[in-house]
Amino acid sequence: MTPDTATGPSPAVSCTRLTYSFGETTAVDGLDLSVGEGEVFGLLGPNGAGKTTAIRCITTLLPVPAGMVHVFGHDTAKEQMSVRRLLGYVPQQLSADSGLTGRENVALFARVFDVPRRERAARVAQALEAVDLTDAADRLANTYSGGMVRRLELAQALVSAPRLLILDEPTIGLDPIARTSVWEHINAVREATGMTVLVTTHYMDEADQYCDRVGLMHRGRIRALGTPVQLREGLGERRRADGAPATDPLPTLEDVFRDIAGSGLEDQSGGFRDVRSTRRTANRVG
Amino acid sequence: MSEAPAAPRTASADRTPATSLNLLLTPPEPRAGWRLIPARVIAMCAVELQKLRHDRTELYTRAVQPALWLLIFGQTFTRIKAIPTGGIPYIDYLAPGIIAQSAMFIAIFYGIQIIWERDAGILNKLLVTPTPRSALITGKAFAAGVKSLIQAVVVVVIAAILGVALTWNPLKLLGVGAIVILGSAFFSCLSMTIAGIVLSRDRLMGFGQAITMPLFFGSNALYPVAIMPGWLQAVSKVNPLSYEVDALRGLLLGTPSHLGTDFGVLLVAAALGIAAASSLLGRLAR
């Protein structure tokens, strides 16, 4: 790894006043973000907060001016190929090709990342093994459940040994058991490889449980940043200072979020209410 | 690669994958320079062949239309003797035209496929791999060529069964293959270019319907250019399908043709198509 500056190694991701607009709508509005190497960083926020747009800028899918986004010190505007070689990307949609088997889906990504032929089969097998899909590897992906497709996409991303794994809403639409399983696999792989993970989610409970550090995003900007415990304790302290009894339970991340987003949340994003109702359903089922 | 993070993980994460992940720790060596595009082309063609191997339905259903053209239209017009063919039976004259037509119909669907891949997230994922856009489009164009080639083999077999006297000279058949691949590369790029402009599947379906028949009827696939009215001759002159049919006729039947011009026109058309489709691919990623 080459140090970018005298101050030490460059962070896995750094965004400096990242701004991106679709016509009149400013989706990301001056985002400052730094993700350290090896951490699991959660970008949280309701639908429409700008998370996916930020991710698409970091993955080189959306063009941004030079100097705004760096991945391990590489500018996404100038060194797209170098950035892409460092990335594993799982988009929000279930994006495995349903007309191919699991193994073929992973092999395609081995090919486009230039895995030499003599190593390809073994590498693909290891990626499938890492997500527990060895037994289903030769079945067509259209026979997979939602959770299996997610794990398959994880294998597709892992086959090129990325240093930064980017997951956009990896557990959206999955049942609680599948959600847990997806997270367990992400963690196991991270343990084994030491890669950096940048994940977006609007499930606050998942972020609380699985992320080292989170950034709460609202209207295109990070409004609060820290470890989940730091953010929750911070709000608890503020509440006690405002006269709340010391016996009150520690606020949840969702409370923190509501505190930051304020009343603007309710009128702007129906999506967040949907998420909360989804969560309630999930809690009942799980 | 950095060492594994020291931070303790949640209890669920202690199930690390049983087998070794050693291959997933080192990124593959990047393929550089000129070898990149052939590698991507092979990857895309491999996917196409794998899909065909799993589901051959399309191969059979797509054989129906050319078979009907040859059986009904070909045999009827052979009897009527209404179209001057330079002394060969009309069904022989027609066969190369139908090969070109069925190959074009396959290729024209590639725009719809790429929009489907965009909607499914597959395209975004491929765009985050070290694959330049031109390499991705070239790969798709040749994949269309491979699929069309298989279709062409089917039509050649049908034509042979119907008694069309085709060449079996392997060099000429190789030329037929090259022409079919080049033609399909152009038509798939035409379709992907329109996809990059209209951006939606429904609009593209309309465009596809609107252009395939004029391309077919405005070519020498069914009748010689000489008997066309002046304006249609002009259309035929700028229609790559005419050059494809001219070359196929020359190679398969030994009729007088302009092989050099035909190859040249198709090569330039395919190159322009790849350039146009690649430059518009970014619009699909947004």
Describe the structure.
The complex is a heterodimer of chains A (286) and B (286). By secondary structure, chain A is an alpha/beta fold. Chain A has one domain (13-229): Rossmann fold. Helices cover 43% and strands 20% of the residues of chain A. In chain A, the strands form two sheets. In chain A, strands 6-7-8-3-9-10 form a six-stranded mixed β-sheet, with helices on both faces. Chain A has a four-stranded antiparallel β-sheet with strand order 2-1-4-5, with helices on one face. Chain B is mostly helical and 286 residues long. Chain B has one domain (54-79, 87-285). Helix content of chain B is 71%, strand content 0%. Chain B is globular, with a radius of gyration of 23 Å. The model of chain B is unreliable at 1-18 (pLDDT under 50). Classes of the chains: A alpha/beta (286), B mainly alpha (286). At the A-B interface, helix 2, strand 6, helix 3, helix 4 and helix 5 of A face helix 1 and helix 5 of B.
Tell me briefly what this model is:
Chain A is built from 11 helices and 10 strands. Chain A has 286 residues and is α/β, with parallel strands linked by helices.
CATH architecture of chain A: 3-Layer(aba) Sandwich
| End-to-end gap of chain B | 32 Å
Poorly predicted residue ranges of chain B: 1-18
Mean pLDDT of chain A: 87
Sheet bearing the most strands of chain A, described? Answer: 6 strands, mixed
Order of helices and strands of chain A: EEEHEEHEHHHEHEHEEHHHH
How many strand segments of chain A?
A: 10
Outline type of chain A: globular
What topology emerges from the helices and strands here?
The complex is a heterodimer of chains A (286) and B (286).
Chain A: E1 13-22, E2 25-35, E3 40-44, H1 51-58, E4 69-71, E5 74-75, H2 80-86, E6 87-90, H3 102-112, H4 117-130, H5 146-158, E7 164-168, H6 176-193, E8 196-201, H7 204-210, E9 213-218, E10 221-226, H8 228-241, H9 253-261, H10 264-268, H11 270-285
Parallel strand pairs in A: 3-8, 3-9, 6-7, 7-8
Antiparallel strand pairs in A: 1-2, 1-4, 4-5, 9-10
Helix pairs in contact in A: 3-4, 3-5, 4-5, 5-6, 8-9
Chain B: H1 36-54, H2 57-80, H3 90-108, H4 110-120, H5 122-127, H6 133-161, H7 170-198, H8 201-217, H9 230-237, H10 240-253, H11 259-285
Helix pairs in contact in B: 1-6, 2-3, 2-6, 3-6, 3-7, 3-10, 4-7, 6-7, 6-11, 7-8, 7-10, 7-11, 10-11
